[in-house]
Design brief:
The chain has helices at about 1-15, 30-45, 55-65, 70-90, 95-120. It is mainly α and about 120 residues long. It has one domain (about 25-120). Helix 2 packs antiparallel against helix 5.
């Protein structure tokens, strides 16, 4: 009888609704890297005199268009902040290495944005 109760209890637990686990979209890693790049550009570009693009606003637009759940939103924002902080530690003025980093980040970011759009946009 005790074995039957155990089997029934296990069966009932197996049928109980489980808490839904959010599944990341296939482009999540690319979005996090793009967010990190935007944060880096938000920090570096003004150092070198480029104030033509508001990278923080670009990040806000990216999040608004993607409509992520709270967890993904936090991870995207965290990646943006990590990108900012990574360069803020070492750059206080515009240097040749900062200019090189900006150029490389722009190229990588453009490629990621194009890839995400081409592969996953409706």
């Amino acid at each position: 009888m005790r074995i039957l109760r155990t089997i029934v209890a296990v069966a009932v637990l197996g049928l109980a609704p489980a808490q839904a686990m959010a599944i990341d979209p296939p482009y999540q890693q690319a979005m996090q890297r793009l967010s990190e790049i935007l944060g880096s550009l938000y920090m570096l570009a003004p150092l070198c005199g480029d104030v033509s693009t508001d990278w923080r606003s670009q990040m806000a637009d990216l999040i608004a268009l993607d409509e992520p759940d709270a967890d993904r939103r936090a991870r995207l924002s965290g990646a943006f902040n990590a990108g900012y902080e990574a360069y803020a530690r070492f750059h206080r003025t515009c240097t040749p290495s900062a200019e090189t980093a900006i150029n490389r980040l722009l190229i990588e970011g453009e490629g990621l944005a194009r890839d995400i759009h081409q592969r996953y946009a409706e």
